[in-house]
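hiii, so i know i said id send this last week but things got crazy w the move. better late than never?? heres the sequnce for the chain we talked about at the cafe, plus the structure i predicted for it. fair warning i was half asleep when i ran it
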Amino acid sequence: MPPSKLNILDAADRQTTDVFDPHIAGDVNDSQVKVAKFGEMFEWHSHRDEDEGFLVLRGRIAIDFRDGTVELAEGDFLVVPRTVEHRPRSLTEQPVVLMFEPATTLNTDHAVSSLTVNELKRLKPAMQ
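okay and structure toks below
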């Protein structure tokens, strides 16, 4: 039996209700593809040991850096190198963003806060 396909936008719309609550879309080797709806503003953080990739599927976001801001629209991709402090935020209402990072990466890295998600949910394909 072949693997099940997943329409990420449909699954995100059906299964995610909170902003900055990443869900696992799939596993690729030792990494995960995670999807989240972004809210007004996340907190400043960095990832000590891993890079983080962002791909905007719907809407627009900004990623603030201490020395400037990068705006991303649908289809735009950006890699934030390890140790670089950043703060994602939405520019449109609940944009949907894919994140690419090692499976062990916490969304706030070692800075535990009310936004930290320790147990990620997994997106499920629609029933055929």
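btw The mean pLDDT is 90. thought thatd interest u
miss u guys!!
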